[in-house]
Amino acid sequence: MRFVENTKFRKASEDEISKLEDRIQMYLPENYKFFLLKNSGGIPIPDRCPISAGIGEDKLQLIYSIIHLNNYDFSYWGEIIEVEYIPIGVFTSSSFLLMSLNERTLGEIFYWDCHTEEFEPPTFNALLPVADTISDLLLKLY
Q1: Does residue 97 contact residue 117 with C-beta atoms inside 8 Å?
Q2: How many CB atoms lie within 10 A of CB 123?
């Protein structure tokens, strides 16, 4: 698993991760922090992601880098962060890759088809499990 080389993306520093945690007022899972420190994010190769519940697969267009996350307009996602999910990527279908920051499901990765529900506030009725951690997700891509 690798990412398409792109100068717009880079690995995170520990300081940048701390600033992101301060900004969202939540702690990121250690597994995800390690990912941000070791990977630039961006366009993954391979990029096909298996989705549960009979959807099949979707093409993962982008896994957000620390640059995306630190410049992200989280006000758009206010309700999501309040219920403890953070966007960490986007699919070509415009569905989102979310990671749980909830203590009970910390670090679990979900596919959110936000087009099948009312957006304000999101109900997450279309939230499907994808992987237990970011590492598991990367292993599942084909």
Answers
A1: no
A2: 10
Tokens standing for 94?
Answer: 């415009």
* Contacting residues for 18 by C-beta, under 8 A, at least 6 apart: none
| pLDDT at residue 69 in the model | 75
State the pTM of this model: 0.87
- Measured N-to-C along each axis, helices 14-24 and 30-38 cross at an angle, to the nearest 10 degrees, of 130
Q: Which domain holds residue 38?
A: 2-140
131: left (phi over 0), alpha (psi -120 to 50) or beta: beta
Domain count, the chain: 1
Handedness of CA 46, 47, 53, 55 (dihedral sign): negative
